[in-house]
Design brief:
With about 375 residues, the chain is of the alpha/beta class. It contains twelve helices and 17 strands. Strand 6, helix 7 and strand 7 form a beta-alpha-beta unit. Helix 2 runs antiparallel to helix 9. The structure holds pyridoxal-5'-phosphate (PLP).
């Protein structure tokens, strides 16, 4: 059995030798209290208030999206994104099995089916090669739409996920989706601040969904956001996420089935303050990642996962790759015993009871990662 105590000492040292080193905790060093006080003092804590509009505008500016629309969670944002690109019951959605459950929950709310394709060894995200190979084998275009020849179902969307903040090879996915008439929705829940060739993740697809859950790089307590290039679509999303109410001074008229997915002003206030410090947070996270990278270069049988050329990752969660499943379990056991919080990568989606009958392409790299990856402490260090 390997002894990981030297690594445990190093990780503790990175975060100032505390009794307990968490995986990822939020940081509040800016205007959070001031903006929250303002909400309470003015009584604008709920569905109306200036911080909602401001947070959307600030995020659009930060990411380069034409329009941003806030939601109550990243899961809501994904659900709404899929509805906005026209996914309906019995459609198929190409995505990765190596993801958090929310990606699949969102498409399941609509009654769509996931098709799980492999990830790249270099990004841990959906592989354009795997997508292309599956489409060449299984897809046919009829009347301008893509169908799975074997199931007869329409293949409506593709949802890559930027795993742990590391951007996927998104430009190639854009081209493939265009060729096959498939809508591209980016699950950018983990990748705020991450860029591919300088362009923010979540702005390549028709819609991109971001999460502001408490464990993310910045948080609104709970919350999410959709990024759009198409302003009309964004307008529609805003309408649908706010009960589809036709604006009027007193009438309650609604023209569509709507959702109460709007983010309260008090959460948006927190988001505005957090966003002011996002670049500082990412700088700190990348410094921590660089320290890990340098350290693990000299550790046999463990690889520290780094972002690939052309990308700038926010290093939301740092990941190491151990030599096999036994080493992964031993590392988890020893670190958690000694007060260093670590977690394995998610259980693969196709191994969960709800998705065990889903189509896959064999998932070679996916399974390789699942048996080896462990996330190590990654909080902002300021
Ligand atoms: C990949 C991925 N997708 C979606 C979500 C959903 O976000 P939320 O927790 O805000 O609903 C998360 C994060 O929690 C995530 O990591």
């Amino acid at each position: 059995m390997a002894d990981y105590s030297k690594i445990i000492d190093f990780i503790k040292e990175v975060y100032g030798n505390k009794e307990f080193t968490p995986l990822s905790v939020p940081k509040f060093i800016g205007n959070e209290k001031k903006y929250l006080d303002e909400c309470i003092d003015t009584s604008f804590v709920s569905s109306v208030g200036k911080f909602v509009d401001r947070f959307e505008d600030d995020m659009a500016k930060y990411t380069g999206a034409n329009k941003a629309v806030v939601c109550v969670s990243g899961t809501n944002a994904l659900h709404m994104s899929l509805l906005m690109v026209g996914v309906t019951r019995d459609d198929e959605v190409l995505t990765q099995a190596l993801t958090f459950i929310a990606t699949c929950n969102a498409l399941s709310y609509i009654g769509a089916y996931p098709v799980f394709l492999d990830v790249d060894r270099s990004t841990m995200g959906l592989s354009p090669d795997a997508v292309k190979e599956w489409l060449v084998k299984n897809a046919e275009i009829r009347n301008g739409e893509c169908f799975n020849k074997n199931t007869g179902r329409r293949v409506k969307a593709c949802v890559p996920m930027h795993t742990f903040g590391h951007p996927v090879r998104i430009e190639e996915l854009v081209d493939i989706c265009k060729e096959y008439h498939i809508e591209l929705v980016e699950d950018a829940a983990e990748s705020i601040g991450s860029r591919y060739k300088g362009r923010h993740t979540g702005t390549f697809g028709k819609v991109g969904a971001i999460s502001f859950n408490g464990n993310k790089t910045i948080t609104t307590g709970g919350g999410g956001m959709m990024l759009f290039q198409d302003e009309e679509l964004a307008k529609m999303a805003k309408h649908i996420t706010t009960q589809a109410k036709i604006p009027h001074r007193w009438e309650f008229k609604h023209d569509h089935i709507g959702y109460d997915y709007r983010m309260p002003n008090i959460n948006a206030a927190l988001g505005c303050a957090q966003l002011e410090n996002l670049d500082r947070y990412i700088k700190s996270k990348r410094e921590v990642a660089a320290e890990y990278e340098a350290y693990f270069k000299n550790v046999p049988d463990i690889e520290f996962f780094v972002d690939s050329p052309d990308t700038y990752s926010n290093y939301w969660l740092n990941a190491i790759i151990l030599k096999d499943k036994d080493a992964q379990l031993e590392f988890l056991e020893q670190t958690n015993d000694k007060g260093v919080m670590t977690r394995p990568i998610w259980e693969l989606m196709n191994r969960l009871p709800m998705f065990e009958n889903s189509e896959t392409d064999g998932l070679k790299n996916t399974i390789w990662f699942a048996d080896r990856v462990v996330n190590i402490p990654s909080s902002v260090r300021i």
